Amino acid sequence: MHDHVEALLLKSYIVDNCSNLVFNTCLISAAVYTVFAANSAAVQASTFALIGESSLQWMKLCNRFTRFCTQIAGALLCGYVASIFMAVISAMSAYNLFRFYSSKQFLLLKGK
Predict the structure, then answer these.
(1) Backbone phi, then psi, for 40, in 5-degree steps?
(2) Which residues contact 55 (CB under 8 A, 6 or more apart)?
(3) So where are the chain's domains?
(4) What is the mean pLDDT of each run of 10 residues along the chain (112 residues)?
(5) SS3 state at 53
């Protein structure tokens, strides 16, 4: 009887832990996509600052503000490095989530 209760408690712990991991994995993935999208939009805007747009009569800004353009380039590089680190953390979180599931049956939790 004691083993049966222990098995139920373990299964309950795994189910609670999995639901928590699913939520965390979704949040981390959303954060990765948001940071990557924001960084990509900033790259597009900084490209306009670098080369200008003659059809819209936007002049090149990096000819006048070279220090600003250097700082923006460093910030964009840091943003992409942060996106890569966040993607690695997301992959680790997904691995921790899916290691609880059986490889033989779809969405079946592993037993003890």
Answers:
(1) -65, -40
(2) none
(3) 21-98
(4) 50 56 77 88 84 78 81 89 87 77 67 60
(5) strand
